[in-house]
Amino acid sequence: MIFVTDAAGEVTYVSPEWCTFTGNDAAAATQHGWLNAVHPDDRDIAINFLRDAHERQSEYSFRHRLRRADGGYSWVAGGAIPSFGPPGRTFLGYLGSLTVIGPSGSEPLNAYGTLDRFVPPPTSMTASSDSALELVADHLIMAHSLIEQDGAKEMLPVLRQALMIAGMLLAQGITSRIPDNRFH
Q1: Which of 135, 169, 155, 9 is nearest to 80 (CA)?
Q2: What is the Cα–Cα distance from 15 to 179, expressed in whole angstroms?
Q3: How far is the C-alpha of 66 from the C-alpha of 53, rounded, in Å?
Q4: pTM for the full predicted model
Q5: Do 130 and 160 meet the contact criterion of CB atoms below 8 Å apart?
Q6: pLDDT at 130
Q7: Nearest to 149 by CA among 125, 113, 123, 116
Q8: Is the preceding omega at residue 40 within 30 degrees of 0, hence cis?
Q9: Which pLDDT score is estimated for 182?
Q10: Phi then psi dihedrals of residue 146, to 5 deg
Q11: What is the CATH T-level fold of the domain 2-103+111-171, as seen in this structure?
Q12: Rg of the chain's alpha carbons, rounded to an integer?
């Protein structure tokens, strides 16, 4: 599930996958409306953590429960990468993603956030998008974490520029659908 925020920290775009998962339309998620789908016990943690991340304009990872369309809750892991643009590296907002996760052994799940590198968890094979731009954004986010880990930091400025442009296009509602004949 892809999301975009503006420089004020307000959600300007959520993917159709988010809408299907939560049962809410995109308009209900804009600004801070998405918080209504966060589990009540996790909401204050989310608000305080994301406020801090926004003030620092830091990359982040976050885990919390999100209400599904059937009314139950699932744990999601997400995070975002800040975008900066002209003039003078002005903070533009975030491009991020959420992935449904499950319990991993005996470790109890709890809501938390980390102001650090965002390394997205593997995406679910059942969660796919019909939007080419959303798929590109998802892969750019993964590439961002892989490049940092691999030491190919020379590529980061170009990758961050691509992340910024993808976020801007998504926020503008440009999603270009993938044609049915995906394979040639």
Answers
A1: 9
A2: 18
A3: 20
A4: 0.67
A5: no
A6: 62
A7: 116
A8: no
A9: 35
A10: -70, -40
A11: Beta-Lactamase (3.30.450)
A12: 16
Structure tokens at 90: 């002005």
- Terminal alpha carbon distance of the chain: 27
Tell me the average confidence (pLDDT) per consecutive run of 10 residues in the chain, 184 residues long: 90 91 92 93 92 91 92 91 85 90 65 64 53 66 63 68 73 53 34
Residues 6+ apart with CB under 8 A from 48: none
Cα gap 100→121, rounded to integer Å: 9
According to the model, what pLDDT value does residue 47 have? Answer: 92
Burial 4-40 (b: 16+ CB within 10 A, else e): bbbbebebbbbbbbbbebbebebeebeeebbeebbbe
DSSP letter string, 164-177: HHHHHHHHTT---B
Separation CA 32–CA 38 (nearest Å) = 11
Residue ranges of alpha helices (H) inside 6-131 are 16-22, 26-29, 40-56
H helix or E strand, kind and range, residue 175 = none
- Give the strand order in the sheet containing 2-5: 11-14, 2-5, 90-101, 73-85, 60-67, 112-114
